[in-house]
Amino acid sequence: MKILVVDDSLLDRKLLIRVLIKSGISQEILQAEDGEQAMEVLATNYSDICLILLDWQMPKVSGIELMAGIVKIPELCDIPIIMVTASGSDDNKRAAHQVNPNLAGYLVKPYKPDELLVAIQPFLR
Amino acid sequence: MPNKKINPLNLNSFKELVQKESSRMNLRSYSFPGESSFTLALALSAAVKKTFYEKSKTTFSNEPQLEKKLVTVFLQRMRVDAMEKFNATTVFAALHFAVNQESLLRKEYLLTLVVYLERKYIPEFLRLLQYPYIDSDDDLEVKDGCGTLVNLIAGQYKKEMAKLGYKDMMMSHFESYINFVSDGIGIPQGTTEKYEISFDVEGTKRLVVEMITLPMLPK
Hints:
The complex is a heterodimer. Chain A is α/β, with parallel strands linked by helices. In chain A, 40% of the residues lie in helices and 20% in strands. Chain A has a single domain, classed as Rossmann fold (3-Layer(aba) Sandwich). Chain B has one domain: Chemotaxis protein chec (3-Layer(aba) Sandwich). Chains A and B meet through helix 1, helix 2, helix 3 and helix 4 of A and helix 1, helix 2 and helix 6 of B.
């Protein structure tokens, strides 16, 4: 199974992937730099994706918009999503949970590697 | 589902659905006047300090210097000549706040942040935030690095603003440039002043953050 990382910051994607690789996580990692590109990746790879790590603020289609669509699509709605964003306000967290009541996690940047690993561990298969 | 045949999703339907669901996002309304822009600048200064302190216990060598300056506006956008900040090659990244996603798309900004860093120090700043090494000679990497930094500062700034009782605002993604941007940076309409906050490392100015805000923000 694969992990999809969606973030417009190449540096944030690199950091996240480095943490995953250093911790020995062997899942293949797919990347997208905005919500639109993530849709393309999901449309053809959804059956192989076990987890989405999703930034909020991105060009074209934001993370919250993408998530609002994902939860309405039967083929995608069961894929766990963890938001990984610099916006850690309570309002943002509430909004994310409103859009996706089954949100698997909400990590605020800059996060500690251990926080990321704890958040993703239950969803790796 | 190991043996199940998988059909690709219809991408157009997917995009239409995302668009439709996006339009149902909640609007946030304006209310009464907020703090002065000076208070907002102080909160920004605190946000920058916390961004570094919380990650690596890093502190700046002096208290940040706040200066109110005039914005050079052309066609409702702010002219930027970043090299004047450090007299060296400078990378800068901007990020906007608006009431909601729709306002962001219409460029109806309430507040704009711009972070300036001397190019050669970007890897060091990112290292303090425990990011991987980047190559200061690589244009894409330094622009991305500076954008990542404005994103982190903006996230922390939202927390500081929430403490002051401001309504949560929507943040844009970042845009980043080297030395100048030909058509300027979008700013809140009608603004003519900005706060420039300078941060010193070992006694020398190494980081500059600008805040351009409307006089009243939603509370």
